[in-house]
Write a structure and sequence with these properties.
Helices cover 21% and strands 23% of the residues. By secondary structure, it is of the alpha+beta class. It has a 5-stranded mixed beta sheet with strand order 2-1-3-4-5, covered by helices on one side. The two termini are 12 Å apart.
Length: 100
Amino acid sequence: MKAFVCRTCTRDGGFVDVIRNGLQGIEVESVDCMSGCTRAQTVAFRAVGKVAYMFGDIVEGDIADLQNFVRLYAQSPDGTFKDARVLGDLRTKAIARIPG
């Protein structure tokens, strides 16, 4: 699994460090604009053979929900969830679910 953090959502691009510190154990990559500008800060997740997710309006306070997402996503064979409520507030911050 890999997380992608938009570095253009914040002036200094420093939000990637917040995600790296909060999601230890997964690869986190800083990338140029992911076109989620109206919902900054954007973070996306992708794993081989699974759907990809992109979330917007992410703040440091979402780290616990992101940690929960990472755990559930890793456990899911195809990256989908029968009930989005398990994602907590992230379910309202989803911008896209992209087929794997």
